[in-house]
């Protein structure tokens, strides 16, 4: 039973006394009213037990109107409201329960979890941390608060997440879920050896756990042990051929092994399932596989499908622009890549923006736009060092604009670092330097 046993907390309530009754006696109306209220609460809790949350919610709203400071009723109301999808009502009921009984952990934990699911991460952290630190709370409830904190901080603050998880383990012992989470945290913290050991411990206790198997496979792939990762996933994928994480992970492994022909059918088949046909991450992964396999038209189609739903996705615009370049659709590529670099702050890293700017420079060069080529290269240079290709593009752009001194300087800079890596472009650079020398 999830209802709170709050009789002690309720015993301190104040009531307006009309007249002092003799010791040992009770007003008959009070007794009848109390019994009626208790019966209504029992009926509401019975509805909760039976899963009739809509009925429970209506009954508890009536009770809460009569007893607005009763934390048990308010907590029960929040519980019911949450399960019928009334998250705003649930949040208010939990908050009212906390205000009525600040020493109770249950409504704090419930509100923290609700806020976490709604993306109110800072609020959730505060509520869960407060619940974990309350005195007199059961180890199980404090452990639940710490574990929720660990999950909240997993991606943004692995050190804080590890500390919270350790606190939970000290309270209630380590569970297989704890072991798997500790593995993920070790991986995020740059400790692959500890992560692998934890993943293998978790798999030993739960050999059929898909999440753990996929997590370990990802770690092995990152460590350039693709063949081990493939071997690890063969059995789970055979048992769960339509699990998107396993399929996606195996496709990544095949791609790393150069087995693009094996990777593409896995994802293509999964996307025939209506549940996954509109999954953007799977579509992007498949598009990149098509691109790597030289199937540029198929990649373009998928990138455009995802972009229609995510028009301001800068990396996706870069992906589409790049595949358009490979098809020599330079004007369209230039337009797409120009849009991408306009969204500079939406790239995951500055280097990603720099790469996109370099792609724009190439498209603009092929599209006969030397001024835009130079502008794109300036943007690239704000985050990335010059490279052989970027210097060659710079030189040819200056050359096209008859900026011969600048062109000569860029050609020489290109040749200084090319060192035989770009024979065709090096031949062209030397030829142009001879021609430029005669033009002085």
Characterize the structure shown:
This protein has 440 residues and is mainly α. The protein has 24 helices and no strands. The longest helix is centred in the first third of the chain and has 22 residues, at 28-49. It is elongated and about 110 Å long. It starts with 6 loop residues before the first helix and ends with a helix. The model is unreliable at 1-30 (pLDDT under 50).
Principal-axes shape call? elongated
Q: Give the strand content.
A: under 5%
The biggest sheet amounts to: none
Overall average residue pLDDT: 89
From N to C, what is the helix and strand string? HHHHHHHHHHHHHHHHHHHHHHHH
- Tally the helices: 24
Radius of gyration using CA atoms only: 32 Å
Oligomer: single chain
Percent range of helical residues: over 70%
Specify the structural class.
Answer: mainly alpha
How many beta strands in the DSSP annotation? 0
Low-confidence sequence ranges = 1-30
Distance between the termini: 92 Å
Summed up:
The chain is built from 24 helices and no strands. With 440 residues, it is mainly alpha-helical.
